[in-house]
Amino acid sequence: MGFSVLVTGSNRGIGFGLIRELASRSDVTNVFAGVRNPESFPDITEVPNKEKIQVVQLEISDKESVSSAAHTIQKALGDNDGGLDMLINSAGIISGPEYTQVEECDSEDFIKTLNVNVVGTHLVTTTFLPLLRRGSTKKVINISSKLGSISELTRLHDVMRPLPHYTTSKAAVNSITQSYALTYAKEDFIIFPVCPGYVKTDMAPSGVLTVEQSASNIANLAMKATKEYNGVFYDSVDGKIINW
Ligand SMILES: NC(=O)c1ccc[n+]([C@@H]2O[C@H](COP(=O)([O-])OP(=O)(O)OC[C@H]3O[C@@H](n4cnc5c(N)ncnc54)[C@H](OP(=O)(O)O)[C@@H]3O)[C@@H](O)[C@H]2O)c1
Hints:
Keywords: NADP, Oxidoreductase. The protein has 6 helices and 7 strands, in the order E-H-E-E-H-E-H-E-H-H-E-H-E. The protein has one domain: Rossmann fold (3-Layer(aba) Sandwich). By secondary structure, it is α/β, with parallel strands linked by helices. Strands 3-2-1-4-5-6-7 form a 7-stranded parallel sheet, sandwiched between helices. NADP nicotinamide-adenine-dinucleotide phosphate (NAP) is lined by residues 8-9, 11-15, 36-37, 40, 58-61, 90-93, 116, 120, 143, 145, 195-196, 198-199, 201-204, 207.
């Protein structure tokens, strides 16, 4: 039996890094790249094992798109017994200016950020549960951020530039992830949030890690995760636990 994985937000940044990284692994056979605009998916002619990669239209805040992606992936895996082994929710945004004082944070930007990062992650997870249930490992890894930890936010508040709607959204990602982890532990799901580190992408142009380094760290953590990982927040840079 092969190992199948879906990564959301995978036309660029950490998501695309994960697609390349996972396709390169001999223990992974099907890599579904969820992208809201398939035309924006990069040319993968030179990517090793590109035949493992299938691009699927997936706008995570749109119910119809998410349902249609689940249907497409179910068909690709075989309607009867093929389940999805792992879901990595990587799609995320910072709507509006990245840095803004809390009292100046625009409510529309706040709503958009919460809608994609939190509600979108929830919508994808809940829609793919039936397929994940039939998978061999039942893993859901949500790409969160250390800044979604209230302990870390408190520790770093005076030295970091403020991005309150984003940090609040990642605290909520942690909370909804924990709700799933606690609810589905009884079905042997392994569900946890991961901080990818500070990674140089469009979202974080000053990031210090390359996408390749971060994707390799995340993939290592995700692939080796056992049931003890369920409901624990990890830093993929050093593999250590982050306090909520
Ligand atoms: N970079 C960092 O240092 C860092 C640190 C901590 C956490 N993170 C988290 O890591 C994840 C990936 O971030 P990144 O740095 O790779 O960001 P990025 O380069 O800006 O990529 C974001 C990805 O999310 C997709 N996306 C956004 N909204 C979407 C939607 N509604 N439906 C489907 N896809 C959507 C984008 O697709 P389009 O091209 O279509 O917009 C893009 O593929 C995010 O959850 C982010 O919060 C990043």
